[in-house]
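Consider the tokenized backbone below.
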């Protein structure tokens, strides 16, 4: 699927592994805890799924676990590859989307964000990051919901 994100960049989304020649060095993690979506509140962008850049020597799965923990205090298990998308910005990059189960929530002293936000339903409005509102994210959320185990 091809679309233009809210920054005006052309993007391509795929639910098939190995579609893009650009190595993924970014992660986005979609997870639920007690039937609620796990989001983080970024101080500038607003509500969004946790994610970030892969650090040197780290695998995509390790980065997924670390980013979710650093941004929400949630400990996840079994991050499962779900999709990838490429953003053709000035410096194109590829981001891998994972689905994961939250094992538990921990209180951590210093978070990279304003912390965890648990939501029963996703209705990306003004409080949500622009990252949650483009056509690609809408398609990702739609496919996640189609899995059945993710509810609303």
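A designed sequence for it:
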């Amino acid at each position: 699927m091809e679309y233009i994100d809210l920054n005006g960049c052309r993007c391509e989304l795929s639910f098939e592994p190995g579609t893009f020649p650009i190595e993924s060095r970014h992660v986005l993690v979609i997870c639920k805890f007690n039937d609620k979506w796990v989001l983080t509140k970024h101080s500038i962008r607003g509500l969004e799924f946790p994610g970030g850049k892969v650090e040197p020597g780290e695998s995509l799965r390790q980065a997924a676990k670390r980013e979710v923990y650093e941004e929400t205090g949630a400990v996840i298990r079994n991050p499962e590859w779900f999709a990838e998308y490429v953003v053709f910005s000035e410096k194109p990059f590829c981001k891998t989307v994972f689905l994961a189960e939250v094992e538990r929530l921990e209180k951590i002293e210093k978070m990279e964000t304003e912390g965890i936000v648990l939501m029963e339903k996703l209705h990306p409005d003004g409080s949500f990051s622009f990252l949650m509102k483009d056509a690609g994210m809408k398609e990702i959320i739609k496919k996640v919901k189609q899995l059945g185990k993710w509810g609303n």
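Residues 2-138 form a domain with the Nucleoside Triphosphate Pyrophosphohydrolase fold (CATH 3.90.79.10).
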